[in-house]
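Exercise 7. Given the encoded structure of a 216-residue chain, write a plausible sequence.
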């Protein structure tokens, strides 16, 4: 029986909805959402829960357009590694933003920087560098040289001209199966990358160029 001296309290549906939305998401609800939305495994999610604030960081980075698996890997392997090494926590010692991580992942995907360089940049961010990812790469001369396809053909032609014996050996492959054409092509690809001074050149792209040039 209600107390006579206590006024009746009526909660509107709007108020209940407002309070429900303002309450933090329950762990089970979060896990279910991550499983369904991002196709993360339960073990993946449990790794993120080692630093609960990393979940929001992960989602913000992916929402910017970053690859889900790469984002997860960078957070749990590289960022967690730095935090654990220094005894930091994600809540108060995170030195990068979701935008920074997105830029880092995008730069490696576009071959603007290499993965080892990306890891160096991440460490510099935690050391207090407040510049953007691109600015850090540029100031340290870490940006890869951009090479177009016509330049690649020129580099490949130079490699062939400087290695005529190997080129002839490759051409004789069809008449002499003992010759290792794959080994020669791999050697040429390495020389072409070195000559171009860029890691942006895709090995398979160079292989196709060499195959075409060595037809004659």
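Solution.
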């Amino acid at each position: 029986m209600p107390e006579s001296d206590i006024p009746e309290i009526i909660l509107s549906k709007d108020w209940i909805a407002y309070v429900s939305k303002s309450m933090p998401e329950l762990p089970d609800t979060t896990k279910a959402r991550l499983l369904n939305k991002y196709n993360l495994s339960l073990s993946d999610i449990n790794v993120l829960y080692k630093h609960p604030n990393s979940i929001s960081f992960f989602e913000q980075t992916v929402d910017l357009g970053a690859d889900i698996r790469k984002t997860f890997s960078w957070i749990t392997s590289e960022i967690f590694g730095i935090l654990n090494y220094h005894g930091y926590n994600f809540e108060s010692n995170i030195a990068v933003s979701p935008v920074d991580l997105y830029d880092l992942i995008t730069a490696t995907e576009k071959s603007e920087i290499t993965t080892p360089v990306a890891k160096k940049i991440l460490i510099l961010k935690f050391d207090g560098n407040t510049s953007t990812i691109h600015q850090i790469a540029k100031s340290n001369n870490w940006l890869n040289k951009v090479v177009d396809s016509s330049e690649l053909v020129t580099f490949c032609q130079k490699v062939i001209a400087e290695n005529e014996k190997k080129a002839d050996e490759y051409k004789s492959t069809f008449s002499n199966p003992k010759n290792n054409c794959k080994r020669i092509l791999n050697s040429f690809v390495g020389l072409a990358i070195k000559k171009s001074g860029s890691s942006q050149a895709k090995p398979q792209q160079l292989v196709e160029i060499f195959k075409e040039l060595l037809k004659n």
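Remark. The chain has a mean pLDDT of 85. Students should compare their own answers with the one above.
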